[in-house]
Amino acid sequence: MAAKSFFITTAIDYTNAAPHLGHAYEKVLADTLVRWRRLCGVPAYFLTGVDQHGQKVQMAAQREGIEPSTYAARETAKFLALWETLGLSNDGWAETTHPAHKRVVQGCLQKLYSQGELYKASYSGFYSVRQEQFLTDKDRLPDGTFGTEWGQVVELAEDNWYFPLTKHKDWLVRLLKSRQLVFPDFRQQELLNAAEKISCDLCISRPRERLSWGIPLPFDENYVTYVWFDALINYISFAGYRPMGETGAEFDGLPTFNSLWPADFHLIGKDILIPAHGIYWLIMLHALGFTDEQMPGFLVHGFWNMGGARMSKSTGNIADPATLATQYSPDALRYYLMRDIATGQDADFNAERLILRYNADLANDLGNLVNRTLSMANRYRAGILQPTSKNLPFTSELAKAIVALPERVATEMERHHVHAALEAINELVTRCNGFIEIAAPWKLAKDPSPEASSNLDATLGLLTDAIRILAILISPVLPRPAAEIISQLGLEPSKELVFQRAKLGLLPEGHRVGTPRPVFPRIESAESSK
Ligand code: MSP
To answer: Is this structure's pTM higher than 0.85?
Structure first.
């Protein structure tokens, strides 16, 4: 049997509106983490997608007087276009209207129903249209009203189908006490606290007359499935799970479940760990018969805010990633999103900082290093380099710093601290640029002594090797520029962009580098061009 791949998924985004910066952040982070694994030679699978059903989409479509399916397809196209622009390397694409997904959702429901895990009950109470859920007294503010986060709240009396969370509460608490599933750690503690307070079951159906845009319950045609119960299942339906041994052409091309499950990480924002992923999803899997060892892990990221406040369409307080990518380039956006936030924490979006980061770290530092080194190699040595293994005292301090970098980056990446890995990379770039100033190859080139000549060879060889290693290490975040840099070094990106090759001295003797072309054109900001 094939070894299990590293399996990372993202949340699937609602298609009730175009993608926003938070969506782009999460997907680029997943892309970076999976590219890191591939760089290290680990077989990996990256699944992302869109959440197309539910009341939010139905209402948005109604407002425009079009069918929900037309609406969802139109918004889905915007997500796909953005992911293409940002260079996502996802292996799977989860659209919840996909026929295979629908059958797996129905299969899961049927299985739970047959096992006696679902029951019908009548409920009357307050219902949040925006959050698509019934509210309880716990959701009231001290003055007795429901907060604005719930949007429109209406009174409803309905028969519905329920999934018994309470029955599995003790199991979940035990699981969370015995296994670390959630990163960062404090989120696991928050989840455990919430699990200990589970006091009601989950309503998993919506009457068709009120919500038609969903997957019909297989055992009661008057209802469609609650959108979360449908959406969460994407993680297994698109990974090849067949609850009732389903077959058919719609399953063609899906992966083999055993080669992926359990997911190493569901990468999600902090707003959807509790209750959706940490409570509903884990209990759903348990009720479906998954063992404790088959429970997935969760990597929970923070939020991008604007001016300290949550981004929100209604206040117009929003950054549009498609516009940012066009205005500043996809590379600038990817770099900023990975460099200016610590995984797990929040950050404030600021376009001026995006420009600053890109111009300082990439255009000035890395771009300049590549440009100067290749120009000097061409000018002083006709592009031909001597091996760096000579290890002269002249270059030994810098060589030590280069040797230490891959391990440092690996440690940070394994902890998902992409920002810290980039910081370490940038530190070495700065150091290499500083070394050029001290070594002054333009002076060495004029000095006829054999020592100067040998120092010039060592300098150019070491800097070129450093650039090669830097390109390898930065490639999960900036795959396109990394490949471009490797090509300019006269090397083959597909062979060179491998973590194993992030070692000094792997340039062949007498290697000839190419000519430099700008990899990171400077961004002229509105301010600086005034
Ligand atoms: N459709 C559900 C997820 C179902 S997963 C089975 C949903 N969609 S969403 O479009 O509202 O959010 C998608 C992801 O984007 C979530 O992980 C959410 O936390 C993340 N973000 C939404 N706004 C964000 C920011 N401002 N910043 C960072 N991430 C944010 O929830």
So the answer is: yes
